[in-house]
Design brief:
With 188 residues, this protein is an alpha+beta fold. It contains four helices and four strands. It folds into three domains: 47 residues, no CATH class; 72 residues, no CATH class; 48 residues, no CATH class. Helix 2 packs antiparallel against helix 3. The longest helix has 20 residues.
Length: 188
């Protein structure tokens, strides 16, 4: 009984000395840290990465451009040739026929046969995500000693050599204590 009374008086003295009254729900003390184990969590981190490549592309074009110059030049040359090599009443007919033939030859001479194609190299790029696993520190499992006992908690940061703990004293409604007042099991 004397030991319990001394503990109660010391506890009340600590509460009063810390500036926290029992009505506030407890008081704070320092407890020695005996172990601090880091907790790691594996996470995936995304790194955007640009990937580029060269690609050969075939282009096809059909016919020729919109210029009528080759056909006109061919018609003039054909008309002159038809006029030079003909005589009499057939001269006008041969001049017109030479102009038509020259226009057709001029057009066919400058037009590629059918379709033409060419190849170019084009650069293409795209952004892709590259994932990498990393271990990230998320906290610490702390073991600390208070009043001869070992307790554990988890914290976000390493506390150092000591950790601040809140001690809260509350009476219980245990009626067995009244029957076994001399028992030392209450001090464990």
């Amino acid at each position: 009984m004397k030991k319990q009374l001394v503990t109660l008086i010391l506890g009340f003295g600590l509460v009063t000395a810390s500036g926290v009254s029992p009505a506030d729900g407890g008081f704070f003390v320092k407890a020695r840290v005996v172990d601090a184990s880091p907790i790691y969590e594996t996470i995936q981190v995304s790194y955007p990465e640009e990937r580029c490549w060269n690609e050969r592309v075939r282009h096809t074009r059909q016919g020729y451009g919109r210029s009528y110059t080759p056909a006109i030049a061919g018609a003039i040359i054909g008309g002159v040739a038809g006029n030079q090599f003909s005589k009499g009443s057939k001269r006008n007919v041969l001049t017109a026929a030479g102009a038509l033939l020259g226009a057709s030859l001029g057009r066919d001479f400058t037009r590629p046969a059918g379709r033409s194609s060419y190849v170019t190299t084009e650069r293409h790029c795209e952004v892709v995500d590259r994932y990498e696993e990393q271990d990230q520190l998320v906290g610490y499992d702390i073991s600390y000693r208070y009043n001869g006992r070992i307790f554990t908690t988890r914290t976000d940061a390493h506390p150092g050599k000591f950790i601040r703990v809140k001690v809260q004293v509350e009476p219980t409604q245990d009626y067995a204590y009244n029957r076994y007042q001399g028992d030392n099991d209450w001090n464990d």
